[in-house]
Design a protein that fits this description.
The complex is a heterodimer of chains A (113) and B (116). Chain A is mainly β and 113 residues long. Chain A has no helices and twelve strands. The chains are: A mainly beta (113), B mainly beta (116). At the A-B interface, strand 5, strand 6 and strand 10 of A face helix 1 and strand 10 of B.
């Protein structure tokens, strides 16, 4: 079956530091890949997505590139802000019987001023 | 309108109570979902409705009863819950269950449920 593996958290950074959250996946076919963000006390928001190999998703300064050869979709941001403190979930979905989202375990990010 | 609205935001109920969670979307999405999320964990899928018909029930106990009255509304009826059912309940929608893979889901803010 499909699975998503994220780096263990929590991650604590100072403001303006560079962020990488690693995500690798296992899928039988050609999944779409997503990053969701969950701010404290809220639901999940779609941060960015990529639907095919070598696609780069980007939003709010965050980027992730769909790497089929390494089955990875790492999240990066060049300069984090305190307001980026949240839990980040990597997820995938495929067509057919695996249409629903498969989530990684989540990575808690805390950015200190 | 690009939102999924969930009510109530917080709910405290006793183990003998009956309550309902409500979810509404006006994006014309034809697939709707209920998820359960425990603290510091990813969401777990409970139910999928596609074109107002129950498509997937992930072996959820019968004390949780979903209902989809129309294409915009999704309810979750709760009865005789246990303290371990306390969690954040998230509703989500997508354009079409068959085409979820390219689009992702839109999530509501959730209902924080506490069973006492």
């Amino acid at each position: 079956g499909n699975s998503v593996t994220q780096m263990e958290g929590p991650v604590t950074l100072s403001e303006e530091a560079f962020l990488t959250i690693n995500c690798t996946y296992t899928a039988t076919g050609y999944p779409s890949l997503f990053w969701y963000v969950q701010y404290p006390g809220e639901g999940l928001q779609l941060l960015l997505k990529a639907t095919k190999a070598d696609d780069k998703g980007s939003n709010k300064g965050f980027e992730a590139t769909y790497r089929k050869e390494t089955t990875s979709f790492h999240l990066e941001k060049g300069s984090v802000q305190v307001s980026d403190s949240a839990v980040y979930f990597c997820a995938l979905s495929e067509g057919g019987s695996a249409r629903q989202l498969t989530f990684g375990s989540g990575t808690q990010l805390t950015v200190l001023p | 309108d690009t939102e999924v609205t969930q009510t109530p935001k917080h709910l405290v109920m006793g183990m003998t109570n009956k309550k309902s969670l409500k979810c509404e979307q006006h994006m014309g999405h034809r697939a709707m979902y209920w998820y359960k999320q425990k603290a510091k964990k990813p969401p777990e899928l409970m139910f999928v409705y596609s074109y107002e018909k129950l498509s997937i029930n992930e072996s959820v106990p019968s004390r949780f009863s979903p209902e989809c009255p129309n294409s915009s509304l999704l309810n979750l009826h709760l009865h005789a819950l246990q303290p371990e059912d306390s969690a954040l309940y998230l509703c989500a929608s997508s354009q079409d269950y068959a085409r979820t893979f390219g689009y992702g889901y839109t999530f509501g803010s959730g209902t924080r449920l506490t069973v006492v």
